[in-house]
Amino acid sequence: MATSVYETVLIGTCDGVIDKKKNTSYSTNKIGDRPDLLPIITLQYPICSLCQRGLSHVVQIYCPLAASPYHRTINVFACTNLQCCGKSESWIVLRSQCLDDDIKARQDDKTTPYTESAMSRTDWCDEADDWGMDDEEQEKVAESSAQMPSDSTSEGNDVSIRLQDLCIDGGDQSALEPTDVPVFKSFYISVMEESDLGGYHDMDHENKLLREYEDREGKIVREIQSCGSGKAQEEYEKATAKHGDEAFTSFIKKISLCPEQVLRYSWAGSPLFITEPPSNVNQMVSCCGHCGAPRVFEFQLMPALVSLLSSADTSSDISLEFGTVLVYTCRNSCWKSGSTIPVEEFLVVQPDPDQKLFK
């Protein structure tokens, strides 16, 4: 998979519990709760292909692409059945899109007007990121978008933003959800660029985690130290982890500046594998089932998310176990004008390599 020399990587972290009294919408980046649908989307709640149980909503990411006129939301679901944990077949990722005109049409149809907050789409794309795309990649996305049917000619066609908590008060549409599907506690997701992590906070917590890793894996790691530039440096002695997996060692090194990250976003960038992937991993990622275009890596869920996935119902006990979940989406982000059904994309679940040590 071709990537740019410099990839913009966005880091998502937990930013507090979502108050049940506050409404969220399709533009809210969040953990857990129920999915918030784009105005025209109808969702038949997904079920596990292994045990046929309803899947629980894990994360919602609002991620419109540069040079595209579409609002764009991705929702990830997983099965909480212990027998299905760690298996890609028990997860599903859905991509939904719609145009500004679709939202306006819905406003006209509603008895109670649909109102956006004072911040419009164009207000927050002037100084935003380009989601890690180089010029060539942006041109390809722009060409693909131009070829897709579109009724929108608004000034918001160049949508280029970072993940953020931009809440637009939505309507009352909700997913067609079985009443017995477990619901995870809900948290906001905030974002920063990985390049800004130097000096993010003091290194005591990170060094503690490194010491624990060192004791567990038998690998010698020197402490992270802040340098004069405000960025952190880490030095690693050559050694072999107990499980012999260099990918895991590299993974730990990469996230050490912010172990609490729950998500890494880099459209068409490089995934961070927690265990050595198969040599044919690129061939394993299937092409888009709708337009036939190759899929590109978009984001991944990180180990710190596991501890946040507990039941919203205090009387029940649910959880998920995984190392990382890699999400791949259609390079063209294809969408049929007028469609009301989400597009299923592709994901790979990698288990935590430490889990096998206890089996």
TrEMBL record:
Organism the protein comes from: Cirrhinus molitorella
InterPro entries: PDCD2-like_regulator, PDCD2_C
Entry GO CC: cytoplasm
Start-end of Polar residues biased regions: 144-157
Highest taxon in the source lineage: Eukaryota
Region (Disordered): 126-157
Domain Programmed cell death protein 2 C-terminal stretches: 245-350
Gene Ontology biological process: apoptotic process
Protein name per UniProt: Programmed cell death protein 2 C-terminal domain-containing protein
Pfam families, A to Z: PDCD2_C
Biased composition (Acidic residues): 126-138
High-level lineage: Eukaryota, Metazoa, Chordata, Craniata, Vertebrata
